[in-house]
Write a structure and sequence with these properties.
The structure holds two protein chains of two kinds.
Chain A lengths: L1 H21 L2 H17 L8 E2 L2 E2 L2 H29 L1 H8 L1 H6 L5 H34 L5 H9 L1 H17 L2 H25 L2 H7 L12 H8 L3 H9 L11 H26 L5
Antiparallel strand pairs in A: 1-2
Chain B lengths: L1 E10 L2 E11 L4 E5 L6 H8 L7 E6 L2 E2 L9 E4 L11 H11 L4 H14 L15 H13 L5 E5 L7 H16 L3 E5 L3 H7 L2 E6 L2 E7 H4 L6 H10 L1
Parallel strand pairs in B: 3-8, 3-9, 6-7, 7-8
Antiparallel strand pairs in B: 1-2, 1-4, 4-5, 9-10
Helix pairs in contact in B: 2-3, 2-4, 3-4
Classes of the chains: A mainly alpha, B alpha/beta.
């Protein structure tokens, strides 16, 4: 009975978070701009692409353009999720909704959980709709069905969860805009370390490393540690995009590691968020 | 109903509430008085678990104020009450009812009754951003009354109201008291408090100066204002 009541409270707060966000004109404008942008991408499928003087076949074009748009949408929605999350607690405090909810027999963790779920559901829906449009364009117009596309979109939702939890936590500790920039910074650093890692594993870099010389080789360089320990948002996106097309999804632990990494970060940051909010003074 | 046991709240080196202990009985109409910055709102915040005491304890109905369950039959109206501007008064009341896990029809019935009680018929469906401060305050009080609470915690409930509004709120609170509701009131309106309260506590610089029945405090034709000024000015 108590569990049901708790779930109902969380569901209500989630619903209020969703409806409050949807009331924001900036959100609606942002959504329509994104939809228009995705529709404009449709033209990219109809172009003729040449690589090394050879015309690419339609299948390759569809696969490549779909992957590129998948990444653009995923990164864009991460940015939007961070923007939506950064002001949630402050707005609730200023509007009196936070004190209204917490003056009722509702525990603080239920409030935070409701907010978190509301933002997550909204962001996931946002991304899923945009990815869904691409899926429909390729399925209906180009007759190329990519069921993995939607699965990849759902998998990328863990990145959104990370961004939301991190921004919510940091917005309790620092100004909203700084929290937003910090989380964006985390994403960018992750992208750079992934880039360095990929570069160091390229044939050209391997060749350079194997050249004889007086350089002592340490297998565990600083950027490697950063690469493994840092939140692997871009790695997660790459893993999700491997579901698109015919490429093989699993290559052992290394391919699943970004998912584990992001989930672990979500758990740790989530625990810190609940703990921090428990001691927060309500105004 | 309410129990404060050596409650202390410190913000760095500032002691907002200093070792305050008192209790409020069921059915009592209690007023907490004090000048600005005395620690009245901090006590209300600690009662609602909006702020954690540095030491000591607070309880409502025998349950620690840190437990959400202690707020089951508690209605509250905070100082500088705000309502989301994009909602209507009706939507706000509905949200409050839903948060108390009320059924749909029950929520509608209660909200309708409360709109009548706070005298806001005809304005309940307009957006809050068109309301005056007094109207927001009335809806705040209405929201506090949803779910028929046994304890009402009010922090400056007449703030922003005109004299007629103040009188209406006073009459409403009196009728609630007659229905057996316990009322914990934070107020600067000494004349209003003198008219309606059973018990008064005066705090200054976080310390409790006096807590007694109003009849015991007012002696030799003194008004509450006289007693208040005498105690606060030392």
């Amino acid at each position: 009975m108590n569990t049901l009541k708790t779930l109902r409270s969380i569901t209500r707060i989630t619903k209020y978070t969703l409806s409050d966000q949807l009331r924001q004109k900036s959100f609606v404008v942002m959504f329509f701009i994104c939809v228009v942008f995705v529709f404009l991408i449709r033209g990219c499928y109809q172009g003729n692409y040449m690589v090394n003087g050879q015309l690419l076949d339609a299948g390759t074009v569809v696969g490549t353009v779909s992957k590129v748009t998948f990444h653009i949408i995923a990164v864009g929605v991460m940015l939007i999720a961070a923007l939506l999350s950064m002001r949630v607690f402050r707005r609730d405090r200023e509007d009196g909704m936070q004190s209204c909810i917490l003056s009722k027999p509702i525990a603080r963790w239920q409030y935070v959980m409701g907010k978190l779920l509301g933002l997550w559901v909204l962001s996931v829906l946002f991304m899923f709709i945009l990815h869904g449009i691409i899926f429909l364009i390729t399925s209906v117009t180009l007759k190329v069905v990519m069921p993995g596309y939607l699965a990849a979109s759902l998998l990328c939702s863990f990145n959104l969860l990370f961004v939301i939890v991190a921004v919510l936590l940091l917005s309790l500790l620092m100004p909203d805009i700084v929290a937003f920039l910090c989380v964006m910074g985390v994403g960018i650093v992750g992208l750079i370390t992934d880039g360095i890692y990929a570069l160091s594993h390229s044939q050209m870099a391997q060749g350079m490393i194997q050249q004889p010389g007086p350089h002592p080789q340490s297998d565990l360089t600083w950027w490697k540690i950063v690469h493994y320990v840092w939140p692997k948002l871009s790695g997660m996106q790459y893993f999700a995009s491997s579901f698109i097309g015919s490429s093989e999804v699993f290559h052992g632990f290394a391919s699943v590691y970004p998912l584990i990494n992001v989930l672990l970060y979500c758990l740790i940051l989530g625990a810190l968020l609940f703990r921090r909010f428990r001691n927060e003074e309500i105004i | 109903m309410i129990e404060l046991n050596a409650a202390t709240k410190q913000y760095g080196s500032l002691t907002a509430v200093d070792n305050v202990s008192f209790s409020v009985k069921t059915g009592e109409y209690f007023a907490l008085l004090g000048p600005n910055g005395a620690g009245k709102t901090t006590i209300v915040k600690m009662l609602l678990d909006f702020a954690r005491p540095t030491s000591g304890s607070l309880s409502i109905n025998g349950l620690s104020s840190a437990l959400a369950a202690c707020r089951t039959a508690v209605g509250c109206l905070g100082e500088n009450h705000h309502i989301p501007p994009y909602l209507s008064g009706w939507q706000y009341l509905q949200r409050c009812a839903q948060l108390l896990d009320m059924g749909r029809s029950d929520a509608i019935d209660q909200c309708r009754r409360i709109v009548e009680l706070i005298g806001m018929q005809g304005r309940e469906h307009t957006k809050v951003n068109t309301y005056s401060k007094g109207m927001v305050q009335r809806f705040g009080l209405g929201a506090a009354l949803i779910g028929k609470p046994k304890l009402l915690i009010l922090d400056e409930p007449t703030s922003g109201l005109d004299p007629i509004g103040i009188r209406e709120i006073r009459l409403l609170l009196e009728s609630l008291k007659h229905q057996g509701m316990t009322i914990f009131l934070n107020s600067h309106m000494l004349s209003e408090v003198e008219k309606i309260c059973d018990t008064v506590a005066i705090i200054h610089r976080g310390r409790l100066l006096v807590k007694d029945a109003i009849s015991a405090i007012l002696k030799d034709g003194d008004t509450l204002e006289d007693v208040f000024v005498r105690l606060v000015k030392g």
